[in-house]
Amino acid sequence: MKFFIAVLLAFVLLEVEVKAFTRRLQPRVVAGRNANQGQFPYIVSLRFMDTHICGGSIISANYILTAAHCLSTEIDDESFDLEPHRLSIYAGSIHLGSGGVAVQVAEYTKHPGYAGLYRDIAVVRLAQPLNFTDEIRPINLSQSDPPSFANADIVGWGRLYENGPRPDILQYNSMASLSHDLCDMLNPLVDESFLCLLPHRREPNGICNGDSGGPAVYNDVLVGVTNFATDACGSAHPDVFANVAYYADWIRENSDLGNVNVENSDSGNVDVENSDSGNVDVENSNSGSVDVENSNADNAMELGRF
């Protein structure tokens, strides 16, 4: 009897170990979950020649907030700004290739202090306003930092793990916000213009290539713009975001947020008048898709940040 119980316990322990090992092998946004349609109506895919390069957040019918490094590329160690007419955004779908609408970019403005890792934030003006629906809505800017160790959602179509595949379905997960003092202890590169989010201890998660420019959200307001990770995707180190509260005045001054009505907006949506101009239905659009596998854009836009 004792032998039978010992054998049974051994099998139970073996099964637990196998399940734990399997979980570690699963794609670890890293360790993300599939989003539901309309769950994050403010996120967009920023595209170069119709190929996804970064994320972004809708802040009004005419403007998207993203990372400055998403709007440039490097050739032979020289940085070049991307031409706005080659850029577009894709909104209204959790899928990268279907169900959404595409709008061309008219122009963009990078923060004037952008250099290297610092001041990595930009506003993008669309060639025509977005038509708001239940699946295409703006998000309000945070006026203050999230509390320490509060859970903030990260969202994006970035690689599922280091050098891993890109998902077709939007991914999301949560990370814990850190105070500036604690963030500075863990990463001396950062200052108050950054927001640090800490991955889970037992199953590290976080941002990866293709998540750049996307949102970090706390209490349904935008608190961060994805900038970079200290180490590989899904490492135990904090991931780093542009701190939206720090840049809120600059964002308003360089967009139309000073002219929009945010009253009576319980869900953080912005009421913009005269936004009836139609979006482009990608399902019926004549614009050709770029084969990422054979496109120079994919190699050029692997930006060294996430």
UniProtKB/TrEMBL annotation:
Compartment(s) of residence: Secreted
Entry's Gene Ontology BP terms: proteolysis
Entry GO MF terms: serine-type endopeptidase activity
Compositional bias per record (Polar residues), positions renumbered to this chain: 275-298
Keyword Signal: yes
Pfam (any one): Trypsin
Keyword Secreted: yes
Residues covered by the Peptidase S1 domain: 29-256
A single cellular component GO annotation: extracellular region
SUPFAM superfamilies reported in the protein's UniProt record: Trypsin-like serine proteases
Record region (Disordered): 261-306
UniProtKB keywords: Disulfide bond, Hydrolase, Protease, Secreted, Serine protease, Signal, Zymogen
Superkingdom of origin organism: Eukaryota
Signal peptide positions (record): 1-20
Family, per entry: Belongs to the peptidase S1 family.
Protein name: Peptidase S1 domain-containing protein
